[in-house]
């Protein structure tokens, strides 16, 4: 279903797990329906299109309302290599940037995050993209554990994690603030030695 980056297929040395000094841009990853690629400066229009939908940002820590200036600032930051090792992919569907995927490695583990345009909800695209990045994290980066958080009310998000076989580890109460209110998060994780990519 997914294509693994050429660096992983060719047998080149994997990055040591937990290397937090990575400043590379993420590789392109192709799935059945998506292209995951680094953000580009000309992605502002697409980012503003999906991010300015108030319902899209309901469970994400983004400005509301989300202005074009916010989109410009997001893209300006996303196109630069992150000195802390955070990898940021643009989710491209039918030639348009329709969301993002983040992987934030630290000490052999990584947090994964995803946001996808509301018209694409319920089509399995988030599951497809997240699965590809998890596989990249385990195979190419040598990570041992990948975890994700979702607001407890965001059932669609934690259903994605469950479809991928991630294990629910617990609830973190009042973990963060969204739109001025503290919210509880559900924590899910996957271990490399237990990971089985969806068919």
Can you give a write-up of this model?
This protein has 199 residues and is α+β, with helices and mostly antiparallel strands. It has a single domain, classed as 3-Layer(aba) Sandwich (Aminopeptidase), CATH 3.40.630. Helix 2 crosses helix 3.
CATH level-four homologous superfamily name = Gcn5-related N-acetyltransferase (GNAT)
- The general outline is globular
What is the architecture at the second tier of CATH?
3-Layer(aba) Sandwich
Total number of beta strands: 8
Main sheet?
8 strands, mixed
Calculate the mean pLDDT score and round it.
Answer: 87
CATH class category name: Alpha Beta
Query: Low-confidence parts lasting 5 or more residues at pLDDT below 50?
Result: 1-22
State the helicity in percent bands. Answer: 10-25%
CATH topology: Aminopeptidase
* Number of domains as seen in the coordinates: 1
Short précis:
It contains 5 helices and 8 strands. By secondary structure, it is an alpha+beta fold. Helix 2 packs across helix 3.
């Amino acid at each position: 279903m997914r294509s693994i980056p050429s660096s992983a297929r060719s047998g080149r040395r994997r990055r040591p797990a937990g290397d937090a000094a990575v400043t590379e841009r993420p590789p392109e990853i192709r799935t059945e329906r998506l292209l995951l690629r680094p953000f580009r400066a000309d992605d502002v229009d697409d980012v503003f299109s999906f991010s300015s939908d108030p319902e899209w940002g309901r469970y994400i820590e983004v400005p509301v309302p989300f202005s074009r200036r916010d989109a410009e600032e997001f893209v300006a930051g996303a196109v630069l290599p992150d000195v802390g090792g955070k990898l940021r992919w643009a989710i491209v569907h039918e030639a348009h940037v329709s969301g993002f995927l983040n992987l934030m490695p630290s000490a052999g583990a990584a947090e994964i995050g995803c946001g996808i345009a509301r018209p694409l909800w319920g089509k399995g695209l988030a599951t497809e993209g997240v699965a590809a990045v998890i596989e990249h994290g385990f195979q190419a980066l040598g990570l041992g554990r990948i975890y994700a958080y979702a607001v407890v009310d965001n059932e669609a998000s934690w259903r994605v994690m469950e479809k991928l076989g991630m294990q629910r580890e617990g609830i973190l109460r009042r973990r963060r603030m969204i739109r001025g209110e503290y919210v509880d998060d559900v924590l899910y994780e996957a271990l490399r030695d237990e990971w089985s990519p969806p068919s």
